[in-house]
Structure formats: C-alpha cells, structure tokens
Amino acid sequence: MTKDTKTPSLAEPLTLPCGVTVRNRFYKSAMNEALAGRDCAPTEAHVRLYRAWAQGGAGVLVTGNVMVDRTQLGEPGNVAVEDERDLNMLRRWAAAGTGNGAHCWMQINHPGRQSPITINPHPLAPSTGKVDGDYGRFFAEPTELTCEQIRDIVRRFANTARIAKKAGFTGVEIHAAHGYLINQFLSPLDNRRTDEYGGDIEHRARFLFEVFDAVREAVGPDFPVAVKLNSSDVPIVVKVNARDGVPGGFSEEESIWVMKQLERRGVDLIDISGGTYAKPVIQTNGGAAEDRRRGVYFTDFARRIKGELTVPVALTGGFRNARDMERALDEGITQMIGIARPLALVPDLPNRIIRDRWDGSVELPRVTTGIKPLDKAFGGILVISWFELQMRRIARGLRPDPRIGGMRALLFAFGQHGPAALAPRRRKGRQ
Length: 431
Known about the structure:
The chain is an alpha/beta fold. The protein has 14 helices and 14 strands. Strand 1 and strand 2 (about 20) form a beta hairpin.
C-alpha cells in the first residue's frame, strides 16, 4: 500500500443541476439484491446491506431494481413499490442507506417483456415478440401495451418516485437501459408500434420523456432524478465500443439525442450503460483476467459526449483501481465513478481509496462450476447469482467470500429461478 498527499478527485463533492450536493464521486450502481420476500417488500437484509455500504464511504448508493408493478417483476427477489403498504420498512432502508452522509437513490423500473416466465407468464411490452438470445428461454411471449396501459405505467413510475421521496430516499434513478421496458420503447427492434409511441426516435422516446416529466412533477425541482441509459444496444465484445451495436437497434446517435432532450428537461445525472438480456455486456464471468483485457466500459462513447452535454455523467463498468478512476475524472469523461460488483467484495472500497489512499486493484474471480458446458450455458446467471450470494453475506454481517464456487451459485440460481434456470440451452432465434 502506498499513499499520496494529493487530495484525490474522487473525494471532491459534486453539485447536481437541482442544487443538491453529493459528498464524493463514488456512485454505487444498481445490482439486484434478490432480498425481497414473496410479498415484494424490502427486508431487514436490505437495511443491513445498505448500512454497510453507507459506512463504506460512497457518495451515492443506487438501489437494485424497484419495480413499479407487483405483477411485473424483472427478477426473483425484486422489491416492488406501488402503494404505501411497506412505508415503514422503506423508511428504515432509506435511513440505513443515507447514513454517514451518503445519498441513497431508488432505482425505479418496469421490466416489460423481460419478466421471467417462472414469476410472470403474461408480460407486457411495446410490441409482441420474445426476448432473443440465450436468455430467451426465461421469458414468455408478451402482450402489446394499449395506450391506456402506457398511461397507467407512467402514473406508476411517478407514484413510486413520490413514495421513495416520502420514505426518505434522497433521489431516484429511472431505469431506461438493459432491455427493460423503457429501453424496449427506445429500440426499433423491440418497438414496432405505428401510433404516437413508435416510428422515429422522437416518437419512440415519448414514453421515456412522459415518465421523466411525471416523475419530476411528483418529486419537485430540488430532488435528484437520474436516468440510466444505454449508449447503444451493445453486444458482448472484449473491448466494448458503443459503435458495435445491435444492427437496427437503439444507436449511439439516438442515445446522444435522447440525452440532450433529457438535459433540457432537467435531468440531474445520466448513468451510461449498455446491452440487453439478448446481448448482455457486463454479466460476463471471465474475472480479473478479462477485466485487464477489456478495461473500463463505454469510454469511447463517454469521450464522444464530453463536449455534447453539461449534465453530470456516471460511467459504470470496469473500474477496479483508483488510478483508472482518477484518470477518468481528470480527463472529464465522467463526473461520477460507477462501481457495482467490486462493492460486493469490498464494501468499504471508497473509504480505502479516499481515506486510506489504497492504490491496489479489486481482483474479481472467474466464476466457474468447473464444468465447461455448464459455464457456457449459464455464464451470466452464474455471475448474477454469485454476487447475490456475496450481498447476502454482507446483509448477514459476514465478510464476502471470493472462494464461493460457481456450482453453489448455480444451485442458488435454481432456487431463485426454478426449473427454468436449468433448462437446456437453445439456439438464438428459436425461442
């Protein structure tokens, strides 16, 4: 361990357009905690997990998916908030997440067609058509939303944001990425509507803008509202470049146009991401060796928009050491450093870097069952489940354990997803 006398950029506060200031540049990005019970309510485990992260020193903690409709869940174990029945526990969760000077923002979402068949055989989407790719076996054929249903979902987003504020969360993030409902509206591959919500990007983005405007009205002008947005619908590649998108999908140029419109509407932060379930980016299982080959995600896109936007940006994916984080901040390609999986192994990583001036790297293990066909078929599920197991350990007051194997993660996935988790792998296009 070495120390530097210079105050790191990571320690500098950031004032958002709404006037709120966050204490440093660590932005704990959303991960699905899978800690809710069958009633979709937050639990004591959420309280303990977020208390640990708040004590760990991050400036902003973003929760995992909180769904706006209990009948439309994105993953087993999702919290759903559609009324005030769980307000007391939400208040305890928010109080824990805002301890030690941290902000805690609720990520609000609707899965659209990405609602697993094991928990929802009747998903909704902008248009009909199943999820493509290796994950397609987990999802049922969706029903196309009516305009009345679209307006109801807009209302639900606003209502969930209102409850989040009432409970004591200090911001919300609207999830418009990763192939969930808002991203489905943005994508011309998923959205084949011919009404006012389909066609060119101005019409495909209408749903997002209506959701944002309704949320802003519900929480007021001085409450942080962030949007998580794909740079494009990016597939897995060793070096992620936003131009390597899905042919015909939501493009880099369209993403920039949407960001500019959100900036005009008063968004406080844009969380850059990429990929969908059909073409995932971040949920790979190569571990530290792959991290070193690939580096930080979406840097080419972040450099491109550097002169296009004035709204703060959070860049998430691939940050493993303080040197890369400081370089990204000093170059001005991001204003917040998005961290997710490393915080499931090192919950106090911000404190180590800012307070203790730690200059090491977080080495993520390669998650493997030791059986190549299983790894090939369930690589993404293994990774998701492995990190959910680590978060459960933190919530129980235990230290993360990087020695946990992939087979244990697979068994956990089976418990979470049911028999569909172990279904035979199907070829793309044959779901």
